[in-house]
Amino acid sequence: MAGDNSGDSNPPAWRDSLAGWVSACSLVAFFALIILMFTERGGSQTVWDRLVYLLTGVEAVAFASAGWLFGKEVHRSEAQQAEKQVVTERERASQAQSDLRESVGREAAEQQRQITQLRLKKWLAG
């Protein structure tokens, strides 16, 4: 499907923006309904029951929205820390690899020198 980012790990920016607005609106609706319930506490039992019924649905959406908002910030900081750690570990691995190459090069040169000395001694002795 054209324009579908279902394979991408990062959703489009408009989706985060829309989710933020929906979350904010649901939280505002939740608090408005709480205020309405305080004003209607002296009303009839039927009105109160309907408001409580309505509150349960709005409450679920509002709490899910609040969880999304706070969870997003928590995961963002964890992701940034993980990215920093990845960069550090890659630098360490690169340094270790270059140190290993240098060490192997020195070992090979030392072995070649020893072989040359043995051949020279053998040639001089023989």
What do you see in this structure?
This protein has 126 residues and is mostly helical. 86% of the residues lie in helices and 0% in strands. The protein contains two helices and no strands. The chain has helices at residues 13-39, 45-125.
Q: Major sheet: size, sense and barrel closure?
A: none
Alpha-beta content class: mainly alpha
Distance N terminus to C terminus? 81 Å
Q: What's the total number of strands?
A: 0
Name the overall outline. rod-shaped
Helix content: over 70%
Low-confidence stretches: 1-7
Provide a count of the helices. 2
Domain count: the total is 1
Radius of gyration: 34 Å
Run of helices and strands: HH
Strand content: under 5%
Task: Indicate the mean pLDDT.
Answer: 82
How do the helices and strands line up, and which of them pair or pack?
Layout: H1 13-39, H2 45-125
Helix pairs in contact: 1-2
Concise synopsis of the structure shown:
The chain is mainly alpha-helical. The protein is 86% helix and 0% strand. The chain has one domain (13-125).
Task: List the defining traits of the structure above.
126 residues, mainly alpha, 2 helices, rod-shaped, disordered N terminus
